[in-house]
Each structure stands twice: as C-alpha cells, then as structure tokens.
Amino acid sequence: MSWVGPSFELVESKLRPPSARPGIVPRTGLVEQLLVSQTTPFVCVVAPAGYGKTTVLAQWAERKGRGVAWVSIDRHDNDPVVLLSYVAVALDRVEPIDPGVFQALASPGGSILATVVPRLASAVSTMTEPVALILDHLELLDSRECLDAVAELAVRLPAGSQLLLASRRTTPLPVALLRAKGQIVELGVYELAMDQQEAQALLEGAGVQLSPAEVAELTSRTEGWPVGLYLAALAHKAGGQHHAGFGFTGDDRFMADYLRSELLAHLPPELVAFLTRTAVLERLSGPLCDAVLATSGSDRALASLEDSNLLLVALDRQREWYRYHHLFRELLRAELEQREPGLIQQLHARAAAWCEANGLPETAIDHAQAAGDADRVARLVASLIQPTYAAGRVDTARRWLAWFEDEQLIDYDPSVAVPGAWIQALVGRPAGAERWADAAERRVAAADRAPLARTPPDGSTMASHLAMLRGLLCRNGVGRMRADAEAALAGLSPASPWRATALLLEGVAALLEGHADQADPILAQAVEVGRHAGALPATLTALAERCVVAIGRHDWSQAETLAEQALAIVAAGGLNDYIMSPLVHTMAARTALNRGDLPRSKDHLVQAARLRPLLTYAIPSLTVQTLLELGRAYLALDDTAGARTVLRQARGILQRRPDLGVLPDQADELHAKLDTIHKGVPGVSTLTTAELRLLPLLATHLHFSEIGQRLYISKHTVKTQAISIYRKLEVSSRSQAIERVQEIGLLET
What is the pLDDT of residues 54-95, one digit of tens each? Predict the structure, then answer.
C-alpha cells in the first residue's frame, strides 16, 4: 500500500484520529449523544470550517475504543481505487478482512461500485464485532465516482455497523429518507457551537483569562464558532485588543480580515513569513520547509508552533511531519496571495524540487503543476503513469493527463503523450487514444525545430515507443503494424520492459497476415521475454494468441495447456478486468467446450462478455479477433443470437479499420454460417455493449436519472436499455435482473 501516500508515517496519519493537543475542550455532551446512538446506522456531522467536526469524532472514537476504522480524506483521494484502498486498510486494522478485497482493488478495470464496494460491505458483515467507519473531511471529494462509492457503501453496510461522515457540505447520503426512517443522527452548526462554559474552557486552555461578561460577549459575537474563539484567544495573547463592539462573525472574508488585523499584525514578521509561505504545503517537515524558504532551522520553528498550539497538527509520532488546520491554511494562503503573489510559483517550484529529490514524486507533480513547471510535470508523469495505471489507479493517471489538456500542453512531450494514448486505448476510449497519439506524432515530427528534451524512461528511443504505439492502434493496416513492431524492436533498449509488447505486436501482425507458422515462434519469444521482465499483460496475451494458432492447427492439447497458463497469470496478477482478458477467457471457453466441459465453457464466456465494453476500435486487431473467437464459441453452443451480436460489434469496428488482414474474411465466413442457421432466441450473450455498461450501475443505489448522468445518456435511454436487459434475462424487474446477472457471473456478489 506504499503508493497511496507520500510515506508510511503520513499514510498512518490518515488512518487514525488526530492526537489530542493540550487545551482541547472535551465536547462531552456531543460525545455522549453519539455514544447512546450506536444503533443508529448513520451519523452526519456537517458544518462550515472551524466547528470542531474532527475533534468531536476523535473524542467519540477514543471513548468508544474498539471497532473504529478512521480515514482522513485529502484531495489525492479523488480516485475510487485510492479512496477504497484506504477504507479497506482501515477496516483491516479493526479486524483482518478478505484478501480478495485488495485483489479487486489491484485491478484497473471493471465497476468499482458493483465489485469492490460489495466486497468491502461483505468483509464488514463477517467481522466478529460491529464496526464504525469514520470518513473525515468528505468535502474534499469532488469525484462523482468517489461520492457514489461512499453512498453505495452506506447502502450496503450490514446491520449493526455505523458510517460516520464529517463534511463542510452536504453528504451523498439520502438524508431526508434516512431522517424519516429514524436512521440518522445529524450534528450541524447549532449542535457544534460552543456554549459559554465550553468557550471559557477553550480560552483558559489557550492561556487567556477573561471575565465572565467578556466570555459571554465573545461567545455571542462568534456565535460559539470554536475556531473563531480560538483565533480570538491567539490574537489576545499576541497583543490584539478585543472589545465588545468588535463585530466578529463566522464569515470567511471577515475571518481573513480578523486573522490579518488581530493575529498576524501582532506576530513577529519572520513568523508571519514562515506561516504564510509554508501554507503552500499540504504537509510540512523541517527539511521541506527549509528548502521552500531557502533557510534553516524550520524543524525548531515547527516544534515551537506546535507547542504554542498555533493550529498545527502532528502527522506522525516522531513529530517530523505536520499540517496546518485546514481553515487556518486556507486563511494563510489567502494572506500569501495578498502579500506576496509573485512568490507563490517559486515556493511551489522549490517544493517540487525537494519532493522529487526525496522520494515523493506524486507530491512533486502537484507542486510542479502549481509552479507551471511543465518540464518537471512531464518528466515525473512519464515515469509514473504506467505503474500508476497498473496499480489500478486509472483516475489518478487520467487526472495527470487532464492537466496537460487543460493547460493546452498535449503536444508538449511525447514521453507523456505516448503512454497517454496507451492508457486511453486500454480502457476502451478510442477518441482519447487517437487524440493523444496524434499529439505524439506532431511533437516527434516537429523535433527538428524543437529537439525533444528527453528519452523515454526505459532508455529507448522515442521513435521506438511511437512505432509501438502505431502498431497497437493499427490505424494503417496489419502490414504497417508489423513494420512498426519491427521498428520498435530495433529502437528499444535491451532491458526495456516493452520488448515483450513489441514482440507480441509483431507476432499478431504475422498471424493476421495469414502466416501462423511465422507467428508462433515470435509469440513464444514474447512469452519468454514477458515472463522474464514481469510484463504480465503482454505475456498472457501472447499465450492466448498462441492458443489461437494451436486451435487453427487442431492441436487442442497444446491449446488447453496455453489457455491454462494464461488463466493462471490472470489470476495471479489480478488482471481479470484488463482488455486482454476477454481473449484469454474466450480461448479457455473454446478448449473447455472441446473436451465437453459445458459449464466451465459457459462460465468463461460470461467473463468474456462482461468485458466487451472495453473492446473498441482503439485496439482493433485484438478487439475484432476476440469478438470473432467469441462468435465461434457461441456458434459451437448453438447460441446463434449471441454469435450475431458479437459479429455485429466486430463488423462495426471493421468499418473503421478494414485493413486487418484475414479478419474481414473470417467475419464473412462466420456471417455465412449464421445465415444458414435459425435466428435464435435473445439471451445473456446478446446484451449490447451499451447494456453491458449499464449492468453494473443497475446493481447500485442510483436512480435511472442518476445513472444517465454517469453514462451521459438520457433517463429515457437508460429505461429503454434496462427494459431490453430484462427481456434478454427473462426477468421483469431491476432486482430480479441483478439477481440473475449475479447468478450467472456477470456481476460479483
């Protein structure tokens, strides 16, 4: 799990409540209210910044003791795989959970809502004691997929468990419905506001002595806003003069004015500079602050700030990493923008350099983006994007690519554009793949005017990577595909992990040209090279392609051996939702059918069908080949309706990419066979790709209108597709459809 955070200690800080600092006021009444509501499944603590939401939940967690799983959310968690990985680890610390949850998270494809979330909920249901899951700072999630995951997890949590959410804005839960059913406890501004007694305790804890009348006046002016009271105390200690006529409210703009006039104005200038300039950092350490400020002694400054309770939170037990209170940091950043706007990019640039040099490359990307340092962003993204995708963090990889598009820098660096096109192709987004591929072509073509700044991370030539991309996309026919694969092999470094992929493309091109005898030894070499390099996707695809060759020779024994080897890699590598897997499952289905194992054949065909939405013209050779093999399998099962469905999908791709060697003739041959057979009855195999995309969302809490928003189609279209699904599954309702697809394996239970 090291990828989910900058370091182990910082990851640790996300998975436990913040440590209590001296002077923190016990919120006894609120904690008691939560303790007596432990049978209520949902708790929502919703209020603006500074109302002590985290403090209340932390004090409750300490009182409850056992069975509490805590996740502090930050903006890097806007990737459902990252978010749910933290949730899984937090639950696992309460009680070890099913390892299958982590295996599911390691796969970059499939539906998070319909696969991972049910597994998490199931893991909770098997725990020996009720669990309470706390998600703090939920407002930092702006990914709709992440918010849907939270809502779906809430729907699926077993009886006896609790979900507690703290947020500055409304949560994704159906609060009105839960309220009507008495299934939710809500704490808002009114409940979280401090009374006079709590305010006096807070002020005294901060070392400020005021008369009861002054405390009452301040409590009234702040309306019990805890952070307002605390900053007022700090201002008083720093020399500010609070008086009864001071109109102190919870307004953020006014709060910034107050911070400036009543607190910062009375602090030493060097401390103010330290506070505002380091506010560009989400997490602070002495060495990092030294680098950003171009100074020394920051570790002592941080320790002093923590001792003075100046809204600084320790993130590890060694007191090496800290963060500012979220509201305090926002106010400090606003102050920095007013005082020294021209310095901000330089501060981010220094932070990026330090983070890159100290093993925090993803944090370095964030700072480099803020600094406008496209070269550093490109260099880091080029080295990280493939392993990030391979770890299942597709949304993170897409977010990095989106930055280049937003900044109109898609042509900036082909070492980013090439893997960008690869990823778009692998997730079934052909338009995005072509856009990024064209950008790479333009940049390489312009290299004589502006030479390329770097070579790919594996030390190969950029021309070899671009040739490999051309081969994958196969936009100019299989003859060009083979030439591109050969050119890629010539330019790849001997140790490049991409050599297996280039060999695979060369072997596939030979196979599609009708030269199976030439293709097989090349594919065998791809398997060997891929195993040695750990290139599992290329290895399993080469095995599946060799299986195609073996079946063409009627060597069913070898075909079965190759299919089993490929399936073993799929299972061991958690690759069941990769675009390569449908071909593997299809070949396993054909070999199982040949030996008379009808149930196993059908199981594999279901797995292949589930992933058909990934099969687009982005990778036309693999897509059409897989669909035709599926058609042959369906035909062998007398499922002519299913065979016609996949043939129709294959022909749609052949219209865009007609020059695919022997595949058009194979499609015509399959079509001719189907013309001589009865039409067949629509069933599961006849689900269209649009209907297959809809299936996972049907299994969630989302209404048709919400599903339409996710799929960018109308509510009416969703309803029409759903009715078609019901008809093909021979059911009459949404719930029956979900039961049916879970029964046959199209969705995991």
Answer: 999 999 999 998 899 999 999 889 989 899 999 999 999 999
Task: Enumerate the domain spans of the chain.
Answer: 2-192, 196-266, 462-683, 689-744
Q: Which residues does 670 contact at the CB level (< 8 Å), separation at least 6?
A: 628, 631, 632, 635, 643, 647
Contact 529, 498 (CB under 8 A): no
The CATH topology of domain 2-192 is Rossmann fold (3.40.50)
Q: Which of 676, 674, 654, 675 shows the shortest CA–CA distance to 665?
A: 654
Report residue 449 as tokens: 């005017």
Distance CA 262, CA 586 (A): 71
Alpha-carbon gap, residue 395 to 664, rounded angstroms: 35
Predicted pLDDT of residue 296: 92
Q: pLDDT of 411-427, one tens digit each?
A: 888 999 999 999 899 88
Which runs of consecutive H residues, i.e. helices, occur in 321-413?
326-339, 344-357, 361-371, 374-390, 394-406
Please tell me the distance from the alpha carbon of residue 111 to that of residue 607, in angstroms, as a whole number. Answer: 13
If one counts every other C-beta atom within 10 angstroms of the C-beta of residue 38, the result is 16
Read out DSSP for 69-118?
EEEE--GGG-SHHHHHHHHHHHHHHHS---THHHHHHT-SSS-IIIIIHH
Give the SS3 label for residue 248: coil
Q: By C-alpha distance, which of 478, 469, 425 is closest to 625?
A: 478
Output the CA torsion sign for 244, 248, 254, 260. positive
Instruction: Report helix, strand or coil for 299.
Output: helix
- Alpha helices for 446-535 (secondary structure H): 462-473, 477-491, 499-512, 516-533
CA distance 511 to 184: 61
| 3-class state of residue 65 by DSSP | coil
Distance CA 445, CA 435 (A): 15
Please check whether the domain covering 689-744 is classified as CATH 1.10.10.10: yes
Closest CA to 365 of 382, 377, 379: 377
Q: How far apart are CA 255 and CA 267, in angstroms?
A: 17
Find how far residue 546's CA is from the centre of its chain.
34
Please name the amino acid found at residue 740: R
The b/e string for 163-193 (b: 16+ C-beta within 10 A; e otherwise) is bbbbbbeebbbbbeebeeeeebbebeeebbb
Read off the pLDDT of residues 248-306 as tens digits, 9 standing for 90 and up: 444 455 566 766 766 677 778 898 899 999 999 999 999 999 999 999 999 999 988 87
- Distance separating alpha carbons of residues 375 and 454, to the nearest angstrom: 10
The dihedrals phi and psi of 608, each to the nearest 5 degrees, come to -65, -45
Cβ atoms of 707 and 692 within 8 Å: the answer is no
Average pLDDT over all residues of the chain: 87
Q: Using CA atoms, how far apart are residues 698 and 720, in angstroms rounded to an integer? A: 13
Residue bearing tokens 């703009």 = 253
Structure token digits, residue 388: 């990030």
Task: Please give the CATH superfamily to which domain 462-683 belongs.
Answer: Tetratricopeptide repeat domain (1.25.40.10)
The whole-model pTM stands at 0.80
Share of the chain above pLDDT 90, in %: 49
**How far is 15 from 21, CA to CA, in rounded Å?**
18
- Cα torsion 589, 591, 597, 600: sign: negative
For residue 613, CA distances in Å to 122, 162, 271, 627 come to 27, 36, 57, 11
Backbone angles phi, psi at 246, to 5 degrees: -80, 115
